[in-house]
Write a structure and sequence with these properties.
mainly alpha; about 70 residues; about 0% strand
């Protein structure tokens, strides 16, 4: 569901139908939950994760460069 939402799918019914196992019993609640606000928040969280990944990648590259001769 998150991947579809991130990819731009905004159809509440289609997103809710992607639910699995116990969540299938909560389709109507899921449909209500998939609003623009939730998509906005998820986008913000993913941007933060990307920033953290970039913060980690920079020192990793430095460590690899320094340790290459070893």
């Amino acid at each position: 569901m998150s991947a579809a939402l991130i990819a731009g799918d905004r159809s509440q019914a289609a997103l809710a139908q992607l639910a699995r196992s116990r969540m299938r019993g909560k389709i109507s609640a899921l449909e209500e939950a998939f609003t623009g606000h939730h998509a906005f928040l998820l986008g913000k969280m993913l941007k933060r994760i990307d920033a953290i990944d970039a913060d980690i990648a920079e020192p990793d590259a430095e460590i690899e460069e320094i340790s290459a001769p070893l």
